[in-house]
Hints:
By secondary structure, this protein is of the alpha/beta class. The protein has 9 helices and 13 strands.
Amino acid sequence: MKFVVTGAAGFIGSHLAERLSAQGHDVAGIDSFTDYYDVALKEENARGLDVQRLDLAVEDLELDGVHGVFHLAGQPGVRSFGDVFDEYVNRNLVASRRVFERAARAGVRVVFASSSSIYGDAERYPTPEDTEPRPISPYGITKLGCEQLARAYAQGFGLEAIVLRYFTVYGPRQRPDMAVARIVDALARGAPFELYGDGSQSRSFTYVADAVDGAIAAMERAPAGAVYNVGGGAEATMREAIDALERISGRTLELLERPVAKGDVRRTAADTTAIARDVGWRATTPLDDGLQAQWEWAANRVAAS
Ligand code: UGA
């Protein structure tokens, strides 16, 4: 089958494109290679993949013969206050609206990568999908807007869309602005890590291979209109994640305490009952195994540099 993966040079997108290719599918990758982080890393992610440079906010997706679109492209990161908001609006809302319209007209199913950040500081933990969304970051607001756009295009134009709310995905190639990527890099280089807050904030950390499994299962088996949390089974605090990485690496992390970052939630905990029930997905990678894989990946890169 033929699939489009938008954001194919990104962290989750490159893993997904590789997996689909390994399964024998024809994969057309799309990426605009924005400079949100070092473009060289994206070029490295895209090596061996077919990735076309295209800005979805202004250019059209080619969907002839395509069975499904995994729409992962977007402006990421919850620490998103300030004038950067225009980029969030453009790369999330404007671009996704165009993708949804093209897909609806072509009758092509879309799996859209949304975010746990749409919940903000949630009313319930673990958080099921019907919890009231009340994002506290501009980023989360644009992701929620994208979800609503998908729903509007489903209602008005018959778009077949499935929304996946990813919870803090980690693993090899993780975006360099994210916590685990910074921690393993700091450990490998003997550099300090800036911890925002006291480390008691917690996350449903989700290993990237599990995130990829969830996307493929949703494309294959989810009912149109479904909205699912895709989150790791074990919630951990930042302190616990740091302790685990110190144990795994056999090194001590130098911590620099910084104020809590605006837009950061205190806690995420995914209730994944719905996706388990409907498509049989659940996270299977224990946190220690995933952190070990990311540590080895980062340590090898630092050693080779
Ligand atoms: C992550 C992604 O960055 C978002 O794109 C995604 O949408 C979101 O997960 C999600 O779950 O929806 P976040 O949970 O903030 O957002 O992930 P990290 O950047 O890895 O941060 C985890 C925690 O570590 C946060 O409390 C953050 O404040 C902290 N952190 C991060 C630090 O203490 N220091 C840093 O240098 C970076």
